[in-house]
């Protein structure tokens, strides 16, 4: 395995055997009990709160976080941690207000929610949308970025073999159903956190050794060195650039590129909330872990995940900042400065033994996300398309079999798209690629869910118009608004900058995509409200909401308060 020593290979194989063995044990134990489609797709009633929380984190922290967010840490710095830290608040909102509505109405899939609240047309359109998004955007990016990182660490020239290996490992877990995924995710997240923190600790020691000349590196001294050498990388709020047009020769060009990705304080009034609330609350891939549990278990698991999210930037972002400082000081001679290579560049410093643990942690994150994603693809296809439109009289056995075939086919499609990076994931930057293209449908989807849950007047017609309008508006702001209205309006400020890719200079003019999402969402909400006002005052399909649904017990309240206090301290420190 290329650059791995024997002990590294042994550590990795131990990880593989433990995860595979535990997954097989869970699967065999499950087979002895009555197994139906809800058990296979949702692990109904069998996941504990800690398994739900761990599974949420394992499914969320994948290649786009390890590689993509570390790359943004290299490029922008701590500002990218907003995605993780705002997620903690989003998870509190989901646990307190969203999950009770799902569970009370026995919702098992997001398309089912849309059919129950609106109509079959909206449900079918979104089922197809989600399948397309999960396979073409999410599955491909996870696979490509993960395989690329491991391949780089192992010395290169094995990208396709690694892709196949990752898919086979995910297939082994994914075919076992949600119960196998949920409980193996506990091991995956343990490996992920231990390996991630070990990598960060060593990276900070290396910074102290290389920059300060310390014989034995000190992690705390290394962290202080990062703050001293790159103070601009420890600011959560990026200032809006004065110049809106820059070239490669201008120092402001880099500031513009950073602001386009993370538009400072403005993003907190725009797309940042939509990204997080839509991802954590209206996403089959995430909510599926809690939909088979009772309210108390689901709530505690989600809040536990929110608490863990506060610490994720240490694992996924800090290595990128360490790579930036080392690169600026000339201590990464083999690194070309491309941001998505930052994490792999840091892993190259790791000593024998720890490198195997780091590869295991990275593999755990990738495999857990792949398995969780294909399970969601399988669930939506089987329950919302196959059962409703292709074979209404399908038996439980036929549904489980169909779900497994859906997993296999989704894997092959993802492999086909990533084999030569057809979508250009590497050039866009992995984390930005996912956020940007997911953002095309997020405004309409979140508007539809939000009004559907909490405004009884929302109609099916408004929902259908909303999801289409949100998509059209996102494309409009991304591709046409500047040509029609110009670069500077009261709605937005567009920026023109130059970017060097593979030796070619590209001139790009764009509005920050988080601003695009904010306006797309706002306009969609207004239009949906206006359409709904023409309908009955209470839509017959509106959910009955009881205020007692949203009450939390004292233990839950303590966990919420502790999370918010820690988050406040982080923002005060790095503002």
UniProtKB/TrEMBL annotation:
Q: Which Gene3D superfamilies match?
A: Sodium/glucose cotransporter
From the Swiss-Prot or TrEMBL record, state where the protein is found: Membrane
What cellular-component terms does GO give this entry?
plasma membrane
Any GO MF annotation of the entry: D-glucose:sodium symporter activity
Chief location category: membrane
What the entry lists under InterPro entries is as follows: Na/Glc_symporter_sf, Na/solute_symporter
Pfam families, per this entry? SSF
| UniProt keyword terms in alphabetical order | Membrane, Transmembrane, Transmembrane helix
Membrane topology reported for the UniProt record: Multi-pass membrane protein
According to the record, the segments passing through the membrane are 6-28, 40-62, 74-103, 124-147, 159-177, 189-207, 260-281, 302-327, 404-425, 437-455, 462-482, 513-535, 556-574
Source superkingdom? Bacteria
Question: What family is this protein classified in?
Answer: Belongs to the sodium:solute symporter (SSF) (TC 2.A.21) family.
Query: What PANTHER family has UniProt attached to this entry?
Result: SODIUM_GLUCOSE COTRANSPORTER 4, SOLUTE CARRIER FAMILY 5
Q: What is this protein called?
A: Solute:Na+ symporter, SSS family
Q: Which organism is it from?
A: Epilithonimonas mollis
């Amino acid at each position: 395995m290329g650059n791995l020593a024997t002990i590294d290979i042994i550590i990795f194989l131990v990880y593989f055997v433990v995860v595979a063995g535990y997954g097989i044990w869970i699967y065999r134990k499950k087979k002895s009990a009555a197994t139906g489609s809800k058990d296979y797709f949702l692990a109904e009633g069998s996941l504990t709160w800690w398994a739900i929380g761990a599974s949420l984190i394992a499914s969320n922290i994948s290649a786009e976080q390890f590689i993509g967010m570390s790359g943004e840490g290299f490029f922008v710095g701590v500002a990218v941690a907003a995605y993780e830290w705002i997620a903690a608040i989003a998870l509190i909102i989901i646990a307190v207000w969203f999950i009770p509505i799902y569970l009370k109405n026995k919702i098992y899939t997001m398309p089912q929610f849309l059919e129950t609240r609106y109509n079959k047309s909206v449900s079918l359109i979104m089922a197809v949308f989600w399948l397309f998004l999960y396979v073409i955007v999410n599955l491909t990016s996870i696979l490509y970025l993960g395989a690329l990182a491991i391949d780089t660490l192992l010395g290169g020239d094995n990208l396709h073999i690694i892709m196949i290996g990752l898919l086979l490992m995910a297939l082994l877990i994914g075919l076992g159903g949600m119960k196998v995924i949920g409980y193996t995710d506990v091991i995956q997240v343990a490996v992920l956190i231990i390996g991630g923190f070990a990598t960060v600790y060593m990276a900070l020691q290396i910074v102290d050794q290389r920059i300060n000349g310390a014989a034995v590196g000190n992690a705390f001294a290394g962290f202080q060195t990062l703050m001293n050498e790159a103070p601009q990388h420890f600011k959560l709020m990026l200032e809006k650039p004065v110049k809106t047009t820059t070239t490669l020769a201008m120092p402001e060009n880099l500031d513009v590129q950073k602001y386009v990705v993370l538009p400072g304080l403005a993003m907190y009034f725009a797309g940042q909330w939509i990204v997080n609330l839509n991802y954590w609350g209206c996403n089959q891939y995430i909510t599926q872990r809690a939909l088979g549990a009772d309210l108390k278990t689901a709530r505690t698991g989600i809040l536990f995940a929110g608490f863990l999210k506060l610490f994720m930037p240490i694992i996924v972002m800090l290595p990128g900042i360490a790579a930036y400082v080392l690169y600026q000081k000339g201590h990464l001679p083999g690194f070309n400065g491309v941001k998505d290579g930052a994490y792999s560049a840091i892993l190259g410093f790791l000593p024998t033994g720890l490198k195997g643990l780091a590869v295991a942690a990275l593999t755990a994150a990738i495999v857990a996300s792949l398995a969780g994603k294909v399970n969601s693809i399988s669930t939506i296809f089987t329950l919302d398309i196959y059962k409703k439109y292709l074979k209404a009289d399908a038996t439980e056995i036929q549904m489980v079999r169909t779900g497994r075939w859906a997993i296999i086919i989704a894997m092959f499609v993802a492999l086909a798209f990533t084999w030569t990076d057809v979508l250009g994931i590497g050039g866009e930057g992995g984390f930005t690629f996912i956020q940007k293209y997911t953002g095309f449908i997020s405004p309409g989807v979140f508007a539809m869910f939000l009004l559907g849950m909490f405004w009884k007047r929302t109609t099916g017609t408004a929902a259908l118009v909303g999801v289409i309008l949100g998509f059209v508006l996102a494309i409009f702001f991304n591709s046409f608004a500047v040509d029609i209205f110009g670069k500077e309006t009261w709605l937005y400020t567009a920026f023109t900058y130059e970017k060097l890719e593979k030796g070619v200079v590209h001139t790009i003019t764009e509005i920050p995509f988080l601003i695009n999402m904010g306006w797309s969402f706002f306009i969609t909400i207004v239009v949906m409200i206006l359409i709904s006002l023409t309908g009955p005052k209470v839509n017959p399909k509106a959910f009955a909401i009881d205020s007692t649904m949203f009450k939390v017990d004292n233990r839950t309240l303590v966990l919420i308060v502790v999370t918010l206090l820690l988050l406040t301290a982080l923002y005060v420190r790095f503002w």
